[in-house]
Amino acid sequence: MSALNQYDLVVIGGGPAGYAAAIRAGQLGKNVACVELERAGGTCLNWGCIPSKALLKSAEMYTAAQHSEEFGFSCGEITVDFEKVMKRSRNVADTMGKGIEFLFKKNKVDYIVGRGQVNVPGMVEVVDGPDKGKFLNTKNTLLATGCKARKLPGLEVDGKRIMTSREALAMTEMPKSIVIMGAGAIGVEFAYFLNAFGCEVTLVEMMDRIVPVEDGEVSQTLQRSFKKQGIKVHTGTKVDNLDVGTDSVKLDLVKGDKTENVEVESVLLAIGVEAYTEGLLSPKVKPKMDRGYVVVDDNYKSSIDGIYAAGDLIGPPWLAHVATYEAVNAVNGIFGHSTPHRVKDFPGCTYCLPQVASIGITEEKAKEEGIAYKVGKFPFQAVGKAVAINHPEGFVKLIVGEKYNEILGAHIIGHDATEMIAEYGLGMKLEATAEEIHETIHAHPTLSEAMGEAAASVFGEAIHI
Questions:
Q1: Helix axes 49-66 and 185-196, enclosed angle (nearest 10)
Q2: What integer best gives the mean pLDDT of the chain?
Q3: How many C-beta atoms surround the C-beta of residue 369 within 10 A?
Q4: Ranges in the chain annotated CATH 3.30.390.30
Q5: CB neighbours (10 Å) of residue 123?
Q6: Interatomic CA distance for residues 81 and 87, integer angstroms
Q7: CB 180 within 8 A of CB 202
Q8: Which of 180, 157, 152, 183 is nearest to 170 (CA)?
């Protein structure tokens, strides 16, 4: 603990924004504390990104084993120990959590377990948890408490019949049937995972397509793939009249003037998030807010001197890597290390099968804003590596400016799309043009050849289509 509990920075929240901020301040030689109610790593590491990816890998392995004969061998009957699958997910999260705690020690960050509350600017009180009662004096405070799953008013989340993603990640038994409300990243990832292991999945989205923030062609391709996998997909549909019973949930799927009655074992709410501010601020501390989110300027400073905020708490896009970027920039700015940057271009990734990844604007957005653009597109079925590994589904789509061929947006659906998007992200950061991507040699045979070929197709020069 810092002498006299006097800190250069106290971070409230230990997720991707909070722990990154604390570690960065430690790297800069500052006296820093991170206050986290549960465990270092926050929702992302403990109840989100990391454990869910462990589950998705299990689903991918199971699916691959089912298709083993296509590769020339047979696995025989494959049985699934669902409890063991879930336990592995928790073990991965625990391992990563210990890693963050090690990094705190390495960078001399005081890790305080409890609920931090800003009493007045410059003073943080631990009001709940093992370290309850501690007072931390600080020159600067960074709020990084993130978001929590949004619930439906009047509907109790019991962890069995009604769940959010958090409860779903703690399941020990898989429901035989489920309605997933919301087809954003969380909804479609759980739809893929549960369907792969034999759960009867109904995916419901109020918008006219699944993953509605993605490019329209990507959404359509994923929806076709999901239907082929056996997932029931309902778009432009709302859920009504939920009746939670002892053994099942009855509900109505309403699309226009048509209503379908459904009965399932469980319902998963994946309808978005809301800022987590419970107990964060005393009545004396009232920074400017917008729809529950803390409003900050370009330096991540709130309307109150000495109080900053970063990550999901300041609003969308609600992505862990964006939160980390914001928090590190905020700390660099607080201590004069460099000029902070607000997030402009960022990758968005969805880890179902096929994977979805994108950066920049969609074709629909380009049309809406009247931007003159060109499109390059290349299918994975024309990539030797994709065919060889039995993943020919999907495509790479590149949107470039008509005059200068700068990259405006990139959209990938297919195997390992979430790894491949980084090339276009770097290209946008360096202001690369489609010609420069095209002229960069991509190793053969690799999936990344599709990246170069998509750039070449902007000019009608793709070789393999």
A1: 40
A2: 96
A3: 9
A4: 354-457
A5: 17
A6: 10
A7: yes
A8: 157
Per-residue pLDDT reduced to its tens digit, 4-53: 479 999 999 999 999 999 999 999 999 999 999 988 898 888 888 999 99
Dist CA 312 CA 425 (whole Å): 21
Provide mean pLDDT across the span 410-438.
98
Return phi, psi of residue 41, to 5°: 115, -25
Nearest CA to 182 among 213, 156, 160, 155? 213
Q: What is the CATH number of domain 3-148+274-334?
A: 3.50.50.60
**Is residue 1 predicted with pLDDT exceeding 70?**
no
Tokens of 360: 């920049």
The whole-angstrom separation of Cα 146 and Cα 414 is 30
Task: Name the nearest CA neighbour of 52 among 345, 249, 320, 346.
Answer: 320
Half-sphere exposure of residue 250: CA atoms within 13 angstroms, side-chain side: 6
- In the CATH scheme, what architecture does the domain 162-271 have? 3-Layer(bba) Sandwich (3.50)
Per residue in 337-379, pLDDT (tens digit) is 999 999 999 999 999 999 999 999 999 999 999 999 999 999 9
Percent helix, strand, coil in the chain, to 5, is 35, 25, 40
Of 322, 262, 289, 352, which Cα lies nearest the Cα of 52?
Answer: 352
Residue with tokens 């009608």: 460
Structure tokens that stand for 275 in this block: 């800022």
What is the CATH architecture assignment of 354-457? 2-Layer Sandwich (3.30)
Give catalytic residue positions: 444
Contact between residue 39 and residue 56 where contact means Cβ atoms under 8 Å apart? no
Where does the pLDDT of residue 381 fall: very low under 50, low under 70, confident under 90, or very high at 90 and above? very high
Q: Where in the chain is the domain with CATH 3.50.50.60?
A: 3-148+274-334, 162-271
Closest C-alpha among 46, 54, 50 to residue 13: 46
134: its two tokens: 């501690």
The two structure tokens encoding residue 247: 């053994």
- Residue 455 phi, psi dihedral angles, 5° rounding: -65, -40
